[in-house]
Design goal:
Length: 232
Amino acid sequence: MAEGITLDFDAIFAAYYNLYRAEADTPASTDEEYTVALKLANEALSRWANYDGVYWNQLYTTLVAAEDGGKTTATGQSEYECPSDMREPGGMVKLISGTDIVKSIRVVQPHETQFQNPSADYCYFTGSPATGFTLNFNLAPTIELNGYEINYIYYKNPTEYSTGTDISEIPNAYFIVHRMLAMRFRASRNPYYQSALRDSEDALKLMQIDNNSGSWNNPWKVSDNSGSIWGG
């Protein structure tokens, strides 16, 4: 169950079905098995996205990279629609002209707006993942800032599977395969349910460890070397 395995849904389905039925040929996308598998794959994706309060590195993105959302300032407009896949807003909002950052605007929590100076330059996000978010500028862009690109970092929901060519952000697609298998076994009261579930949970924990450990030369946590000092 190695890390860094990206598969589209057709490949996930083929791997799952091979384990489930031990057959080389997989049903067509019009088959009921395919439809059931899509639902199982998205259930597994939700399990990954909501696991143990982890903030997955793969789910951080920017407004510029999003498929929707208000990305350009307009004179006098203080409210801008956020991307539909936003789960949590990020930090500083930047206004950009070409490759230059023209302005960086601090973000405050909505409940903190009551303590801000009415003429101060700040912004805040309102809404929720269920109804969508809105970016609010306390001071609407002036004509001098009209037409500038808006950008900010945010935390997104994973891309769900709806067609065979869809690829989600999960770093180890074989977690999806084993989770699907486990849920299929559970539905049919197959005794191999626990084994498949254990395989999927092992893959999930390995992804968590990898996610929280940083890179090999830049770990998230500083090593404790206090016991290795000469004479210590």
